[in-house]
Amino acid sequence: xxxxxxxxxxxxxxxxxxxxxxxxxxxxxxxxxxxxxxxxxxxxxxxxxxxxxxxxxxxxxxxxxxxxxxxxxxxxxxxxxxxxxxxxxxxxxxxxxxxxxxxxxxxxxxxxxxxxxxxxxxxxxxxxxxxxxxxxxxxxxxxxxxxxxxxxxxxxxxxxxxxxxxxxxxxxxxxxxxxxxxxxxxxxxxxxxxxxxxxxxxxxxxxxx
Length: 209
Ligand code: URA
Known about the structure:
Layout: E1 4-6, H1 10-20, H2 26-44, E2 50-56, E3 61-67, E4 72-78, H3 82-91, E5 96-97, E6 99-104, E7 111-117, E8 126-130, E9 133-134, H4 138-149, E10 154-162, H5 164-173, E11 178-184, E12 187-188, E13 194-195, H6 201-206
Parallel strand pairs: 1-11, 4-5, 4-6, 4-8, 8-10, 9-10, 10-11
Antiparallel strand pairs: 2-3, 6-7, 12-13
Pathway: Pyrimidine metabolism; UMP biosynthesis via salvage pathway; UMP from uracil: step 1/1
Binding site for uracil: 194, 199-201
GO molecular function: GTP binding; magnesium ion binding; uracil phosphoribosyltransferase activity
């Protein structure tokens, strides 16, 4: 089974609490999501491979380690995943970005694809799939199927909030994938919203409601 990491950190709890507040506007919401993504990326990137290099300090030649961030691909699930993209890119600036547009059919709650544009993936690429809200797990499973169909192998999911139901759905279908989450909430409601959650993350990011 892949790793399940829940941040459980006072700074993240503080920032998530502000994001949950319905009075928090899009500017602050975006900034906080970006900050939390930076903190999550720090943890999720621990497993990135490094290669040894020689470095000449002003005193002596020594060994250093470098991450090959050209072998990292970030896949934000449109549209809310875009809110996490800059946070990852600021730490791995040369990563490729694969865009995947998926929406949730309001009747069936199943994922429907509307846009796919990926860089070339190879076996040794490290892939970070981003969606702030892991609710039913259907969109995430769909995204993971797409990433794997394009050759993706070393995959880490990063989310802000998750429902226990969604985590289980993803772990059952993709037991090889690591999951990094800022906080795990109580449950889903009848409309597949995360409870207590923060509402619709896309609408909160882009003031579409
Ligand atoms: N997507 C959201 O944006 N919010 C939820 O609560 C569930 C899915």
